[in-house]
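Render this sequence as a predicted structure.
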Amino acid sequence: TSCFFGADKNYLKYSFEQYDNALKSQTNLTYIKEIFAFLADENNYPVYFHCNAGADRTGTLAYLINGLLGVSYEDLTKDFELTSFGGQGQRLRSDDTGSGYGATGVYRNDSGNYIAWGKMHQYILDSYPDETTLSAKIEKFLIEKAGCKKENIQKMKSIMLAE
């Protein structure tokens, strides 16, 4: 209910869903819009974000932020799969078929534990086939689906990519 780092720090608390579920419901899209507006204000930095396990919802937001900034899907996936060592169990792209990963993009969907890294990525790819880069696809998603302002996205990118 308050910022651990002090009452003088700006603080948001949103508990949105993970993976493709986070990209589809209006409540989650509203949270994403508000998070990116928060990221567009340099006064809110440094930024620390997390969820209970630091893997699924955190991974979803990290995918959107870092993908927007130009990080490749391969590097995003390597970073995401490192969360498998965090004690919450494997967080893979999908089931390992023995000769690679399955086509569903869903690794686990049981007991309320939904892990669908690949499905989330495929949703972004399928939604914006005319865009050539992952960054452009995510930006279009943020503007068209989440309702983010283009100027907020540009401000956030400027802050995050500053040298």
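Summary. Residues 50 and 58 are 5 Å apart (CA to CA). The radius of gyration is 16 Å.
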